[in-house]
Amino acid sequence: MSLLKRLQNSESNQNPPAGTPPPDGSKPTQFNPRRMVAPATPSQQDTYQDLKTRVQNKLLSGLDPTMDVSKVNEVRRTIQELFEQILNEENIVLSRPERARLFEQIAAEILGFGPLQPLLEDETITEIMVNGAKNIYIERAGKIIRVPVTFESNDHVMRIIDRIVAPMGRRVDESSPYVDARLPDGSRVNAIIPPISLVGPVLTIRKFFRIPLSVDQLVSFGSITNEAMQFLKACVESRINLVISGGTGSGKTTLLNVLSGYIPTDERIITIENAAELQLRQEHVVTLESRPPNIEGKGEVTIRQLVINALRMRPDRIIVGEIRDEAAVDMLQAMNTGHDGSMTTCHSNSPRDTLARIETMTMMAGMELPMRAIREQIASAIDLVVHQERMRDGSRKVVNITEVTGMEGEVITMTDVFVFEQTGFENGRVVGRLRPTGLRPKFMDKIEASGIHIPPSIFGVGERRRY
């Protein structure tokens, strides 16, 4: 987005300058800069907002609209110089903390995402939820709390939403009142606006770590054990087809990112997502992203169309960020037609429910296939289901690693290889461990044929289990 467009967005719908008489004809509030403190009461908030608007508007009028906003440091230095100049010209006296706070807020309006910018820069925050202009919540350490941050108005929220979705060529308005998007760092964004939302514009941001989580970090967090990760590493390297399942916010995409790191660098990988979030480190990666229809209802590109097209792109592996509709049938076809080692995620409550959901989504494609034929396709395509849960203490854990073993009659058979056993709940934390069941998966021959040896102890074979 050009600086001119940013300036127009920032200037629009601003409050009137300080000193403008109110509509009722009363005298305007007088501002004493020497007595300025962090806003606490409504009158102090209004006075501070007047100052911010006045300085911001004057600063915007002094900036060159043709400046390249991609050179953030250069633009920030220019804004800093103009900011200091304006304060001196207007004899506005602020303490150092107040001056820094005012500058950061104005810089965030021009270069960043307004009041959300400090929250986005806080690496301890994993999710940001905006419920209208005055209610903002965050998730930190698995717990949701309200923060003392607000927007000026619902129009202010809308300007920030437009700033997020516009660079992606997407839009949100009354004809298309919700949208999926992403931030430059890959963080997932969903916005939904009135009239669908009755509380004003609602913005949900799922933040991603700037540096993707490593295996060691997942193990240290207690999300998975070394033994289970060693097994999954062997599965990825030996081209086992797997589905990562779980509820919303259970860590599916994070685990998919970690597991994708085990794909050999000499393979061609095609990723398909609604909003590109995966952070693959290999060189030979082609990223595809679906596209919603334009204002005329044309130009839509669905996940299913991209999966079909990916089959013509000579992929070694296909990774679909999430299957949620009839694209499931094409993902199964890809797994069944020589693209072993493909991976995807799916919302579900358990490994068994994962297969049931995929079965239902396959039927959504409108293909009149017998139920047994659909289940045979699923049993043949998917080798492993890795199920995650968000526990009651906010932690995310792998709770099942389950093999799809085949068919018995009309039923798909499954065998747990690892199961999470909770042993207690102490000091507000879930206590337990992902333990092997003592059963070796049937596809071990395929892993060993790839030259990978997994010691029997990984599966608890020959060891006395502890409870």
How would you summarize this macromolecular structure in one to three sentences?
With 467 residues, the protein is of the alpha/beta class.
Supply the number of structural domains.
Answer: 3
Strand order of the largest sheet: 9-8-10-11-7-12-13-14-15
CATH superfamily of the largest domain: P-loop containing nucleotide triphosphate hydrolases
| CATH class group of the largest domain | Alpha Beta
**Percent range for β-strand residues:** 15-25%
Output mean pLDDT: 82
Which radius of gyration do the C-alpha atoms yield? 27 Å
Computed structural class: alpha/beta
The total count of strands amounts to 15
Major sheet summary line: 9 strands, mixed
Order of helices and strands, N to C?
HHHHHEEEHEEEHHEHEEHEHEHHEEEEH
| Overall geometry | elongated
Number of helices: 14
- CATH-derived topology of the largest domain: Rossmann fold
Helix content: 25-40%
End-to-end Cα distance: 58 Å
**CATH architecture grouping of the largest domain:** 3-Layer(aba) Sandwich
Please mark out the parts with pLDDT under 50 across 5 or more consecutive residues, or reply none. 1-8, 10-40
